[in-house]
Write a structure and sequence with these properties.
Layout: H1 10-15, H2 29-42, E1 47-51, E2 55-56, H3 59-67, E3 72-75, E4 87-89, E5 95-99, E6 104-110, E7 114-118, H4 119-127, E8 133-135, E9 141-143, E10 149-153, E11 156-160, H5 162-172, E12 177-180, E13 186-188, E14 192-193, E15 206-210
Parallel strand pairs: 3-12
Antiparallel strand pairs: 1-7, 2-13, 3-7, 4-6, 5-15, 6-12, 8-9, 10-11, 13-14
């Protein structure tokens, strides 16, 4: 499911004054995100924080990402069941520190499991003609901010899912995609996957990884 703010820390986020919007029972995640974003922007919200319900996080990290005052900034977390992070690094990124000693890093694509976006990003997409209005499964108009796309990289045609398609559109609109590598985020599957699943398992305060 896609949500503006979700997870086990729902109650604490509400206590801090955050508005939570939750949608369940749908199959097309790109339409869910596009409709929720359209509705939230129409209601006047200036920030949309996407948190998937299988991400374990500290509510303080929501405040941390907001404090950067960036149009797009996300957290870094592992994929389920494979030693990879759910992010695509920019070419030339040699190494990254996760946790203590980490910080802001510009990336090519970030996943929406823990991603803060500003209303200006969606406005820029519309102004550049990168998102168009359409009727989806909810029976009302929405902007296709998260509509999947296919891009060409050299001789390869690459299919982008809804989150990386969103980042691609944002980049086309001139907006950098940033991540903060300090928050410890866990991705819950058979158990809570974390950074250490890139190496033999051991909980660490920080981890330096080589890219490529």
């Amino acid at each position: 499911s896609g949500r503006l703010l979700i997870g086990p820390a729902d109650g604490e986020l509400r206590r801090r004054g955050y508005h939570l919007s939750i949608m369940r029972g749908v199959t097309s995640i790109d339409q869910v995100r596009s409709q929720m974003a359209t509705d939230a922007l129409d209601a006047g919200f200036q920030e949309l924080f996407w948190i998937d319900d299988d991400i374990v996080f500290n509510p303080d990290d929501v405040d941390r990402l907001r404090s950067h005052d960036l149009p797009i900034v996300g957290g870094v977390y592992p994929k389920k069941g494979e030693p990879q992070l759910a992010v695509r690094w920019k070419e030339g990124t040699a190494s990254v520190v996760l946790g203590e000693g980490g910080g802001l890093v510009e990336v090519k694509y970030a996943s929406t499991g823990f991603l803060l976006t500003h209303a200006s990003v969606y406005d820029a997409m519309q102004m550049k003609g990168l998102a168009r209005a359409a009727f989806g499964q909810f029976g009302r108009s929405m902007m296709g901010y998260f509509q999947p796309m296919t891009i060409t990289e050299g001789t390869i045609s690459r299919y982008l899912a809804e989150d990386w398609s969103f980042c691609h559109r944002a980049s086309e609109a001139g907006i950098p995609i940033m991540v903060d590598t300090r928050p410890r985020l866990m991705h819950v599957g058979r158990y809570a996957y974390s950074w250490e699943d890139l190496i033999p398992r051991e909980r660490l305060p920080s981890l330096s990884i080589q890219i490529g």
